[in-house]
Amino acid sequence: MNIGTIAKKADLPIKTVRYYADIGLVSPSGRSDAGYRIYGEMELNKLRFVRSARSFGFTVEECRELLGLYEDRDRSSRDVKRMALQRISEIEDKMAELQTLHDELSRLASSCHGDDRADCPILTGLSR
Amino acid sequence: MNIGTIAKKADLPIKTVRYYADIGLVSPSGRSDAGYRIYGEMELNKLRFVRSARSFGFTVEECRELLGLYEDRDRSSRDVKRMALQRISEIEDKMAELQTLHDELSRLASSCHGDDRADCPILTGLSR
DNA sequence: GTATTGTTTCCAGTGGCTGGAAGGTAATCA
DNA sequence: TGATTACCTTCCAGCCACTGGAAACAATAC
Questions:
Q1: B23 in contact with A at a CB cutoff of 8 Å?
Q2: Do B37 and B31 meet the contact criterion of CB atoms below 8 Å apart?
Q3: Residue B128 — very low, low, confident or very high, per pLDDT cuts 50/70/90?
Q4: Which of A119, B24, B71, B110 has the fewest C-beta atoms lying within 10 Å of its C-beta?
């Protein structure tokens, strides 16, 4: 498969597939005579795996690690679970942070009448 | 005030204050003979305002707009409220997205025994 | 007079792509 | 066969909001 074909199958932009090749995350299985990247089914699986992991918010470096575990037939599930739990904890932290922001900003917004008058509790709130 | 003094008072890194000056977000009121940036109370207020707005997740460009409204004595509160509500809506979207991620990843993690065995539903789940 | 601290500018890097230019290759159509 | 189009290559630059570091100049403390 050429890069356009596999990009479509993996549902990733061509530029991204090329980028993953550049950083050695998912390398093509070879090159054609003209220098075109050639991909096989293995790489398609990996790219789909990476797309999925990225969509869960794993960083590219974490994807690299997960890919290593994904490929290692002898690995235990312990390491993977540890990473997943870590990620879940990060998501929870972020959600709590967003909740605080949401509440504070909502409080400010609800105290602002939002009309033609100049008085604005939001700006006052932000300046303190 | 020199940059170190105002950075401390505004609770911002010196580098950030300098960066805000570079992009014209909060410019120093002048320069000393030696070329040192000089700041006054006005700039301190603006820097604190920006720090606060940034901590609420407003982008630097939005901060620029908010600063404009903050400085404009004739502005209505409508524009500010619109921006705040927009930001609240973005926060809500992000939270919903994180909630989905959290639930899906939790489901995967709970189905993984996380021991020395090789079978791992998380990896299987990510590869689909 | 010297040691330390503070400030300046400039350059480069972060993460994870994305856009675009300039040029070579392959496939399709007349 | 030639022309057009579609696809591919590399390389460079930009996004956001800083942050780190180097080299040099300025101010302050002892």
A1: no
A2: yes
A3: confident
A4: B24
Question: What is the per-residue pLDDT across A14-72, written as a single tens digit (0 to 9) for each?
Answer: 999 999 999 999 999 999 999 999 999 999 999 999 999 999 999 999 999 999 998 88
Nearest to A81 among B69, B82, B122 (CB): B122
Contact flag A112-B87 (C-beta cutoff 8 Å): no
Q: Give contacts of A90 with chain B, Cβ < 8 Å.
A: none
Mean predicted lDDT score pLDDT of chain A: 93
**CA nearest to nucleotide D6 C1': residue:** A4
Instruction: Find, among B107, B42, B30, the residue nearest to A84 by Cα.
Output: B107
Return the residue of A nearest to B57 by Cα: A101
Q: Which nucleotides of C are covered by protein (CB under 7 A)?
A: 6-9, 15-19, 24-26
| Residue pair B83/A114 in contact by the 8 Å Cβ criterion | no
A118–B74 CB contact, under 8 Å: yes
Cα B126 from Cα B81, distance rounded (Å): 41
Buried b (16+ CB within 10 A) or exposed e, A23-62: eebbebeeeeeeeebebeeebbebbbbbbbbbebbbeeeb
* Separation of first and last alpha carbons in chain B: 58
Residues of chain A above pLDDT 90, percent: 80
Q: Which long-range contacts (CB under 8 A, 24 or more apart) does B107-112 make?
A: B108/A84, B109/A81, B109/A84, B109/A85, B109/A88, B112/A77, B112/A80, B112/A81, B112/A84
The pTM assigned to this predicted structure is: 0.90
